[in-house]
Write a structure and sequence with these properties.
This protein has about 600 residues and is α/β, with parallel strands linked by helices. It is built from 20 helices and ten strands.
Amino acid sequence: MNPHASSAAAGPAPGRTGTARGDWRVLRRLAPYLLEYKARVVIALLFLVTAKLANVGVPLVMKEIVDSLDEVHAAVVLPVALLVMYGALRLSTTLFAELRDVVFVRVSKRAIRRVALEVFRHLHSLSLRFHLERQTGGVSRDIERGTRGISSLLSYMLFSIIPVILEFTLVAIVLLKKFDWRFAAITFLAVVVYIGWSVVVTEWRMDIRRRANEFDSRANTRAVDSLLNYETVKYFNNEDFEASRYDEHLQQYEAAEVKNEASLGLLNIGQSLIIATAVTALMMLAAQGVVNKQLTLGDLVLVNGLLIQLYIPLNFLGMVYREIKQSLTDMDRMFRLLSENREVADRPGAQPLHVRGAAVAFEHVDFSYEPSRKILHDVSFEVPAGHTVAVVGASGSGKSTLARLLYRFYDVQGGRVVIDGQDIRDVRQKTLRAAIGIVPQDTVLFNDTIFYNIAYGRPEATRDEVIAAARAAHIHAFIASLPQGYETSVGERGLKLSGGEKQRVAIARAILKNPGILIFDEATSALDSKSEKAIQSELERIARDRTTLIIAHRLSTIVDADQILVMEAGRIVERGTHRELLARSGTYAQMWALQQQEEAAAA
């Protein structure tokens, strides 16, 4: 057995997913993906049977060749027909094995593609809560291992387990037909002991492997998280700290891998001992039969050939069993992602959102991310069609939560959110989000070109429409000044652009989407005063005749709003126009005075 054959990395599964019940559950989940190509599976199995029949036929023909070449027959005629048959069988063994691979490859690759796509789609359908709590490195490794596990499982099942079972059956039949019962008994006993040893030791090794993979996942998660926060690492001069944390997981992985390889040596030694003992016993029986004139020299060659053909694939049974078990474990962990509950799902019979004027209303809304900490308390307000409502308040007052609820990233626990009289829980999420455009406070861009990131607002938009949106967001001149223009890559999460440049891209993207409802979540927070004034007038222009919700920190940007809501600790404590709120001399007036003082001091 190849000692390096065990190096396939796979992810650990929580709990005892390696039980027979769990394995059958995984196989049932996989079965529908294979039914698309039932004919190919059948043909591949036929090629497999043909290849194995040819393989077992090789030592049978070799026996006849050896017997025909003894001193009596060799002087008469050279067994040309037998030699040709021997060559044809040798060729057939390889030919039909390769044809089996060619026919089956589309089955496995299509299954991998369909499963990976389904997991990808499902991850996008999960709630924001799942994505805030997940670890990107670990999830991506789970998907990678799971899809690789499908390929391994199908390959080992079709190309290793079934062939070994078939070949053992054929060899047993030949031994019973050609020789006495002792040959078949020793072969059967050896196979049983071999399989027992392989299963017991491999189950023990699986626990070691699971721990190794857990440490591998932790190390990968640590590395991805650290690299995604590259700037923060640099800000605090923590390269050595990050390296030490990464190395801590690598050391654990190293120790587990060393133990894993040592246990592999023990497995190999036991397997070799069982095979060597059985082969020696069978060859002694065959040799004794030749000496006693009960068997011919060809029979000795036949026994040796059959055993070699049986034990060579059997020698890899431990590795195959381990890899199949590991593949099932990896697939189970990936399929568990498909079992993640969609916290926010379309109700049965949900209808598309019918936007007429795009009036928005929050009616007695209560909401909490965690049961112990309530975020919104009986929040009620309306944004009439074509009007602008601004929400202000201190950090943690619940302002941004309003945008998340309107997008239905979460469902409210009390009250309801309606658009044109339709409870958003009763409409399809896809149509709901198609009607809303947002410029978020923290703009994260795809690691692609500027053009791609702007066009993401409406992927089918023409180049002229994308450029027009960039002009409206006052970023076209900047883009045109770049050597590669709109084809400039923005880097991971848009890190090659400044905060203001990213914000302008986000504004252009929202303009291009052209939705009926607009949300500006601190949309100009990353801009300087001059840029803010230029873009503010543009935002007012695109918000005209649209229903607009503005979540603001700078009060100077919302003085013209039709209504301003002041929030404190998840409650609306004041509401009115800018002038009305100033006249009340309440919380809003204090915030306004404080910001005016700060701006005056800065000037």
